[in-house]
Fold this protein.
Amino acid sequence: MSRLCPHCGTGFEPVNRKQRCCRRKRCVSAYLAAKRARKAKRQAAYWAANRDKIAKQRTVYYAANRETMLKRNEVYRAANRESILKQEAACRTAKRSSQTIIKPQHQGRCAAGCKDDESA
């Protein structure tokens, strides 16, 4: 045992020189919680500095892999059709119960599947 975990005090042999705590679930979560603010600040700075570059790379990636992602999504939706329909029905019910008045511009274009009332 060459190191002690700062969270639980258990001795452990580090796998690499940067390992600071043992691999117990609670110790790792405590370590991550302690570093969360610093990590968020660093990530926000990175995104601010590289926003255009990231957007360009993302666009290129999605353009190159569009067919693969659509196939993967199709396979997932086919395999989980029942649970997806159940979740969408629950969402529609929640939306209906939270809305008191449906605005005219909302009718017929609702993602929840409202019917178009223009013909009536």
Remarks:
- The first helix runs from residue 25 to 49.
